[in-house]
Design a protein that fits this description.
Helix content: 40-55%
Order of helices and strands: HHHHHHHHHEHEHHHEEHEEHEHHEHEEE
Number of strands: 11
Distance between the termini: 55 Å
CATH class of the largest domain: Alpha Beta
Structural class: alpha/beta
Low-confidence stretches: 401-407
Radius of gyration: 28 Å
CATH architecture of the largest domain: 3-Layer(aba) Sandwich
Mean pLDDT: 82
Number of helices: 18
CATH superfamily of the largest domain: P-loop containing nucleotide triphosphate hydrolases
Largest sheet: 9 strands, mixed
């Protein structure tokens, strides 16, 4: 958009105020799409605020009512008196095309907000503020600038039902139809209908249960349905993650890949074939070891724009930091982070799967199957999440992860697939059923499969 000069902008604001004053049909949309601070002139800001207040208590708005309201608040002279408001009223001819006027005012407001941030950056730099603090403060304020005009989200039910029935029709025509991002596991997809846009999904387990491996499997499976994945790894560098993906894809043990000694031609064939498959996957990995929730939001917005990301996976929640240091406890901080993650999922219209730790109290119980109260640091996670899943492998407590290194050589014929039955426990599902799905985990290569595979 080309910037408009101040004279034109002032005339536009007068026109929109006149329409708001005289057109009941347009008034509701204007007062929900604009804020008084979106107006360039201070007196227009005050007049618009008065109209908004009157519309909240009265169905009818008139020039006389606005004047009386301003006079009662002792602001009539501040806006230029009766003469100025009457002049604005005269700008009304029709409400046709008011949407375009509103958008021009809104975009101009964004420009002024950005200009103010540039001035603020300049002042911070002149005051020798540490560069990290400049970035953090500026990033927070810029991300808080609303860049999309607010559209009324209230919709008549007779319109919504059309979309609902259409989805039901699609499901009835194709029993394998999934309208979200598929997990790649049949029974999980039957329960969830895929990971849904705007949902926050928490995947939790105790250490060594395989939650990172499962998350990588979800990423791999999503790409087989031509979905693009953003994977934020706060704990593990990208080389280790990709090696895990290679192990799962090639079915070559991760321990063999780490040693890389005396590998047979057949093993190398699997490795190269797996590498070619991985090259075709649209998975973008960010392995920044320290990241706050606003940086994550900024990066994810850019990744969605540049790589058309369909789903985000974060490993893991307790390693994300907030931008504030004023929290009384880590529990409150994690609660704020989980709320922000849910907000990001809604805003970017994608599912976010976030891994989470469980508290150690699981280990002290005789029955070690995890429950929602085991989520570490915050009960608020239970409220924010749309789906909460736990991984549980009984064999872990029986075997304590027996090592198979001693029986693995570089010859593929000697590779033994140590498979454990794993429970995926869906304990919370805001829009669907809960229950337990049993899948198989090939432990030495980190691959999960449906039970019937």
């Amino acid at each position: 958009m080309t910037d408009i000069n101040n004279t034109t902008l002032i005339d536009l604001e007068k026109t929109v105020l006149a329409i708001t004053l005289h057109s009941p049909k347009a008034r509701f949309e204007i007062i929900t799409q604009l804020d008084e601070n979106d107006f360039f002139l201070k007196q227009h800001n005050i007049i618009f605020s008065s109209i908004k207040k009157l519309s909240s208590i009265s169905k009818t708005i008139s020039l006389t009512k606005v004047i009386e309201s301003l006079e009662s608040e002792k602001k009539l002279n501040e806006v230029g008196g009766v003469e100025y408001i009457s002049n604005i009223s005269g700008y009304y001819v029709t409400d046709e095309g008011f949407e375009d006027y509103v958008e021009l005012i809104f975009k101009s407001s964004i420009g002024r907000k950005l200009d103010r941030e540039l001035e603020n950056i300049k002042k911070l730099r002149e005051n020798n503020t540490p560069i990290d603090q400049v970035f953090l403060e500026t990033q927070q304020r810029i991300l808080e600038i609303k860049t999309d005009i607010h559209k009324d989200e209230a919709t008549q039910i007779n319109k919504t039902i059309i979309d609902v029935i259409k989805k039901i029709e699609e499901l009835s025509k194709n029993e394998n139809f999934i309208n979200g991002v598929p997990s790649g596991f049949y029974l999980i997809d039957q329960m969830t209908n895929g990971w849904q846009n705007g949902d926050l999904i928490i995947l939790a387990a105790r250490p060594s249960m395989g939650k990172t491996a499962f998350a990588l499997n979800l990423a791999i499976n999503a790409t087989t349905y031509n979905k693009s994945v953003a994977f934020f790894s706060l704990e593990m560098p990208k080389e280790q993650l990709v090696q895990r993906i290679l192990s799962a894809k090639s079915k070559v043990s991760s321990s063999l890949l780490k040693r890389s000694k005396n590998l047979s031609k057949e093993v190398w064939k699997r490795i190269y074939a797996g590498g070619e498959d991985i090259k075709k996957m649209n998975i973008v990995i960010d392995d920044s070891p320290s990241i706050n929730v606003l940086q994550l939001q900024s990066k994810l917005r850019k990744l969605k724009r540049d790589f058309k990301i369909d789903i985000c996976i974060i490993d893991y929640l307790q390693l994300i930091s907030s931008i504030s240091t004023s929290f009384e406890s880590r529990q409150n901080e994690v609660a704020a982070i989980s709320r922000q993650l849910k907000k990001i999922a809604r805003e970017l219209e994608m599912p976010i799967i976030c891994l989470s730790q469980l508290s150690r109290k699981v280990e002290s119980r005789e029955q070690k199957i995890p429950i929602m109260s085991d989520l570490r640091d915050s009960g608020a996670i239970e409220q924010d999440a749309d789906i909460i899943m736990f991984l549980y492998r009984e064999a872990y407590y029986d075997s304590k992860e027996l090592s198979y290194d001693s029986i693995e050589t570089g010859d593929v014929s000697t590779i033994i697939e140590d498979t454990d039955e794993t429970d995926v426990i869906i304990s919370k599902h805001r829009n669907g059923p809960t229950g337990t799905v049993k899948i198989n985990f090939i432990r030495n290569c980190g691959k999960f499969l449906d039970k019937n595979n």
